[in-house]
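Question (not urgent): is this output format expected?
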Amino acid sequence: MELSQALYEREDFVEVDLRDAEIDGSTFVGCDFSGASLAGASTLRATFDRCTFTGTELYGSSHRATSFTGCTFERTSWHSSTLTGCRLTGSTFTDCRLIPLTITECDLTLVSLAGEKLAGSDLSGLRMREANLTGANLSTCDLRSADFRGARMVGTDLTGSDLRGATLDASGWVGAKLTGAIVDVGQTALFALAHGLLLAPLEEERPGSQPLSRSKGR
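Got this back:
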């Protein structure tokens, strides 16, 4: 099925079979895709504004330069899908199957991924400003150069993830689980400051001074 260059407002696509559909340049406003199948579908420069995807099948789909703004994804199957240059601003994901997911050069500002599982994913360079990542599993992810400014990261699992070049607020360094995470030298200073540590240079030994020695107990 082809749904191209059209405007759909508050249309009911509940349980509609849209498998392998080609959606090019169309706009969907307030539409309901609950229970629908878009497995294997492809979108290009499409817009989904405040749409509902409850129990929707999106696995194996491909999306380029498409916007999903203010959408609700609940129990949605996204695995084996690809998103390139997409905007997901303000969308909410709840109990979704997201991995494996290929996501490149996308804007996830204000997205809610609280409690979601994306372990092992490549999320490098993504814009995730003010996102809700509370309790999300981002362990062993490639997060290099990702932008987490303003993100809620209480209990976010970053265990074993590569954070080099990523931008986190102090609350992120304190609230997230960081065991085994890979960081750069500058980030170690930010981590220390976020935990209230004071950074100071090593004191150089003055000329002619005697080195301190520990007294031996008798």
